[in-house]
Amino acid sequence: MSQDNGINKPNPDQDVNAHNLPGHRGDQGEVVGVRRGMFGANSGADTSGYGGLVRTVRLPGGTTRPYGPAPSGAEPGAPREPGVFDEIADELEGALEEQGLLPAEVIQKTVVDRRELTFHIERAYLLQVARTLRDDPALRFEMCTGVSGVHFPEDEGRELHAVYHLRSLTHNRLIRLEVTAPDADPHVPSLVEVYPTNDWHERETYDFFGLVFDGHPALTRIIMPDDWQGFPQRKDYPLGGIPVEYKGAQIPAPDQRRSYS
Amino acid sequence: MSPEANHSSHTAEEAHAAHATAGTRETTEGTVYDVTGGDWDEIAAAAAKSDDERIIVNMGPQHPSTHGVLRLILEIDGETVTEARCGIGYLHTGIEKNLEYRTWTQGTTFVTRMDYVMPLFNEAAYCLAVEKLLGIEDQIPDRATVIRVMLMELNRISSHLVYLATGGMELGATTVAIAGFRDREMILDLFELITGLRMNHAFIRPGGLSQDLPPGGMDALREFQKKMRKNLPEYDKLATGNPVYKARLQGIGYLDLSGCMALGLTGPILRSAGLPFDLRKAQPYCGYDTYDFDVPTVDTCDSYGRFLLRIEEMRESLRIIDQCLERLDQLKPGSVMVEDKKIAWPAQLALGPDGLGNSLDHIKNIMGTSMEALIHHFKLVTEGFRVPPGQAYAAVESPKGELGVHAVSDGGTRPYRVHFRDPSFTNLQSMSAMCEGGQVADVIVAVASIDPVMGGVDR
């Protein structure tokens, strides 16, 4: 076959640096979980032959300068030139220093992945960082597009993530803030004071993940009924559903079907 | 009614006076709180006792003019709304959770059902996020991108037409309502021709489109452009200069720029406050920077301004569609899916003579000549493709504002988490700010100018 159809690229089993190997980061990146086996055969009665599969889930880890971004279309590992992201990081770190904070203490890590800039913020400083980002003339992230929760049950001590996307209309930029909280202490400061738009968004995230936003004016469920038990978007909350009969066969509920891990 | 019961209702009278709809009674099981609602005369009596005409009214969730199942909780004093709150969640269908149990490609079938008035924007935003995660943004064929833009602009017109029609209906302007739905029907017919369905298309897929334009599609599109150009001025004649329309809309639902910014409003509401912010210009996607169009603004900050803006935006959309048609003429018919066969569903996908499934030729090919092709087809459809771990945010300028998708992958064949930042959800927060202090009748106008669709709000 002469056509480049992806099949003839380096064999991922032999070439660990093959680019077509999904999400391959070698030993780099941050481990948030391990997937074992396939088709849900975790009970010990594995007849699938896939029980020995082990796949470590690595999210992009901290990035070293320069942050770039790399030009569109560049190879993932290609070296970056200093760019807008460095400017934003410099301004933020400078502004934090002016307020007597140590940037290294506030910003756990800075990640550049897929031409997007993410600051992982220590949760205690979230409100101050957000206010700085909004008010500093060189930053001016006036608009927050709300908060999205993510649950990583295997990422011990940082199971719950809250992800914010901030948009600067003045400078036409977009950045992401990420904070984490452990399942045992699911508290994150509320940003309603800085971005009133987050009122409903934080209620939604509380509703679905049980993340408690301290300082929110009225943190109640918003989508689910008021007396609902549990937080539906958490990974340990089942999807539910009922099996359906189709042409004489039982089709199991979606969360009971075979799945590829 | 037995004498005892009569007696007990007499003792409960004071409780009723305090709160007409609630009561308590002692039973052997403990205190029972009764919140089933009182009789109207009890409510009226309680209202008459208090000096003012303060009353709390539930508008919805089944009120015909609240755009689906939106519940407005209004505290009114006479005809004035003193406090207004939204109750939402009546249309929650757990789409974000469901996505986590299907493959990335199957996800389009779910997301298209969120805001059902702008299905193609949901699909496009979702696919842009998945493509960003896969790192294949630059590999999408031009033809697919141009058709995406064209479908989105058609959808923008149909969404704005629903706004015009329902907004007109709520004011009693039935002619506008009928004209709006008449023109929307033309677009739905086009969608049916192109995608096979009037709504819930699942036409835009990660990597491109499910198929190319059908034979006769271009002619139908040109025909539509002609008709719509003729019909669009009708709305100006019917409504724009209409004194009743003006009297009902002008100065209603007022929200200035600082209010919009604080509440994170986007789309026509933000542009009605004078800020020409449009993601198509600010952060171009799908090659919008290569199209020639304007972002209209007004500075009235009110419902009338938003009405004018939406009409103007439809005009701009027609301009963009014209340019898309020109480009499609020049682009030769070709693939509308990425080349990478690890992502693209079998490219030979076509309708068989029975109108369903794959073409016989393709089936004959994979069943008879290539075992590998059969296996590959089966694996790709049942298992799906793997997406490298990480997260991505993609946003498009939907008819209602910024529609953002935050997609997280753990490297599996199914999304780990997808969150939609729906513009209706965010914009609906401004209802209190727009309605409090106004008249009850103006609540309808203000909510209509927000143009919320509950499918998107509740997801």
UniProtKB/TrEMBL annotation, chain A:
Family: Belongs to the complex I 30 kDa subunit family.
Any GO molecular function: NADH dehydrogenase (quinone) (non-electrogenic) activity
Compositional bias (Low complexity): 66-81
Topology of this chain in the membrane: Peripheral membrane protein
Region (Disordered): 1-30, 58-81
Species whose genome carries this gene: Streptomyces gossypii
Oligomeric and partner information: NDH-1 is composed of 14 different subunits. Subunits NuoB, C, D, E, F, and G constitute the peripheral sector of the complex.
Subcellular location(s) of the protein: Cell membrane
EC number: 7.1.1.-
Record-annotated membrane-spanning stretches: none
Keywords associated with the record: Cell membrane, Membrane, NAD, Oxidoreductase, Quinone, Translocase, Transport
KW Membrane (keyword) present: yes
Cited SUPFAM superfamilies: Nqo5-like
Protein name: NADH-quinone oxidoreductase subunit C
The encoding gene: nuoC
Reaction equation(s) it catalyzes: a quinone + NADH + 5 H(+)(in) = a quinol + NAD(+) + 4 H(+)(out)
NADH:ubiquinone oxidoreductase 30kDa subunit domain ranges (all copies): 120-241
Pfam families: Complex1_30kDa
Role played: NDH-1 shuttles electrons from NADH, via FMN and iron-sulfur (Fe-S) centers, to quinones in the respiratory chain. The immediate electron acceptor for the enzyme in this species is believed to be a menaquinone. Couples the redox reaction to proton translocation (for every two electrons transferred, four hydrogen ions are translocated across the cytoplasmic membrane), and thus conserves the redox energy in a proton gradient.
UniProtKB/TrEMBL annotation, chain B:
Listed EC numbers: 7.1.1.-
One Pfam short name: Complex1_49kDa
Transmembrane segments: none
Region spans: Disordered: 1-34
Cross-referenced InterPro entries: NADH_Q_OxRdtase_suD, NADH_UbQ_OxRdtase_49kDa_CS, NDH1_su_D/H, NiFe-Hase_large
PROSITE patterns with a match to the protein in the record: COMPLEX1_49K
The UniProt record lists the keyword Transport: yes
Residue span(s) of domain NADH-quinone oxidoreductase subunit D: 171-459
Keywords on record: Cell membrane, Membrane, NAD, Oxidoreductase, Quinone, Translocase, Transport
Annotated compartments: Cell membrane
Catalytic activity from the UniProt record: a quinone + NADH + 5 H(+)(in) = a quinol + NAD(+) + 4 H(+)(out)
Low complexity bias spans: 18-31
Coiled coil residues, start to end: none
Enzyme class at the top of the EC tree: translocase
Membrane topology: Peripheral membrane protein
Domain of life: Bacteria
Entry's Gene Ontology molecular function annotations: NADH dehydrogenase (quinone) (non-electrogenic) activity
Quaternary context: NDH-1 is composed of 14 different subunits. Subunits NuoB, C, D, E, F, and G constitute the peripheral sector of the complex.
Function comment: NDH-1 shuttles electrons from NADH, via FMN and iron-sulfur (Fe-S) centers, to quinones in the respiratory chain. The immediate electron acceptor for the enzyme in this species is believed to be a menaquinone. Couples the redox reaction to proton translocation (for every two electrons transferred, four hydrogen ions are translocated across the cytoplasmic membrane), and thus conserves the redox energy in a proton gradient.
Family in the record: Belongs to the complex I 49 kDa subunit family.
PANTHER family hit by this protein: NADH DEHYDROGENASE [UBIQUINONE] IRON-SULFUR PROTEIN 2, MITOCHONDRIAL, NADH-UBIQUINONE OXIDOREDUCTASE 49 KDA SUBUNIT
Name of the protein in its database record: NADH-quinone oxidoreductase subunit D
Organism annotation: Streptomyces gossypii
